[in-house]
Amino acid sequence: MSLKLYELVGIDPARPFSPYCWRTRMALAHKGLSAETLPWRFTEKNAIAPHGSEKVPVLLHHDKPVVDSWTIANYLEDNFPDRPSLFGGEGGRAMARMINTFGDIAIVGGIFPLIIADIPNSLAEVDAAYFRKSREARFGRSLEEIMANRDTAVVAFRKSLEVMRQTLKKQPFIGGAAPNYADYIVFGGFQWARVVSPFRLLEADDPVYAWRDKLLDAFDGMARTSPGYAV
Amino acid sequence: MSLKLYELVGIDPARPFSPYCWRTRMALAHKGLSAETLPWRFTEKNAIAPHGSEKVPVLLHHDKPVVDSWTIANYLEDNFPDRPSLFGGEGGRAMARMINTFGDIAIVGGIFPLIIADIPNSLAEVDAAYFRKSREARFGRSLEEIMANRDTAVVAFRKSLEVMRQTLKKQPFIGGAAPNYADYIVFGGFQWARVVSPFRLLEADDPVYAWRDKLLDAFDGMARTSPGYAV
């Protein structure tokens, strides 16, 4: 089969960092599928426009585009039903929708102000300029101002993980005894931070830290061996 | 079959109000099971101590006690497998654990300070005194002080529902096209508030409001027709 995945990178084409692309990377690995990586940068809108998207991940399956990490996960689940399930049934697929929203709001949204000014360091000049301009317009402040109080903001972020933390005291993964897409949704955000920022998000005695460690080790250490900071 | 359910009540034995008991009530209805209600009050510890619990819900199945709403939901799922599923498979059962924690922390924990001083109004004198003493010790403040700024605190509570709100813009229920235990977990908290407090938690144009309305109507309006405030 032919699978290709557009993934967000910066200067180093072998250092993918989008939280959403990492959700898809982990989902593909869970299904035992390998995809050819097509490195993609913020300013390369023209490369994916023909596939009907302005953002990555974009998956090409026999050249048919599948756009958006949630849609891709469902596509993989439906088109590769004989491989390990990403959701563990229809109830899990439905509930993963809420975990996907938690991943977007609490994880990606929570981490963004803690690492935002580190991101341009990974980007080529033209992409760094694009990133700065678009994000500063969105937040109405400079990247440095957004990130200025991260040493105190990270405390609130850690507190916001309490729902996850208490869950992980009861079972090893959000998906149960073994990880599934619910875990990859959340892990994508942590891996994004790990790739682009040396900032320490989690304390070592946090159950969320131990959980992240297990996902860094998953699939022969795929996420751990991908270039990043050891935080 | 013989099913009996200890449920928390106050002055009116036909007005159950515990968020956890409502999770179980909805779960029983989902399974098409009816249980005899055993009204239970805060100070009646002796009535349930023989069943190995200090709290309700306690379900008796042929006199065998099953304690704790999460354990009861799993018990019902495992012992009545031919009836409608509460979790929609093992993935849903696992992910519902995190939604259960969200229900405990964000919903019950979020609503508590908004209605806490209203609760004694529903209780007999001895139970009201117990409730006040134990909760004031836990919070280190009077019930009235805890609730004093609820008009501003409710704004933060509504904001904390964003994960749920965005989910409900994508699908009718947390459990998907139809409600399942994931919905009952969260609904239990709203129904608890509705039974004991006239305080308005949700704005009418909130997708969470519309979702709650549908659950009030479920099972022939079981929750709506149970005594409470029309808020």
TrEMBL record, chains A, B:
GO MF annotation, one = transferase activity
Family annotation (InterPro entries): Glutathione-S-Trfase_C_sf, Glutathione_S-Trfase_N, GST_Omega/HSP26, GST_UstS-like_C, Thioredoxin-like_sf
Q: Which CDD domains match?
A: GST_C_etherase_LigE (cd03202)
Annotated GO CC locations:
cytoplasm
The UniProt transmembrane annotation reads: none
Q: Which SUPFAM superfamilies match?
A: GST C-terminal domain-like, Thioredoxin-like
Q: Show where the GST N-terminal domain sits.
A: 8-84
UniProt keyword terms in alphabetical order = Transferase
Q: What is this protein called?
A: Glutathione S-transferase
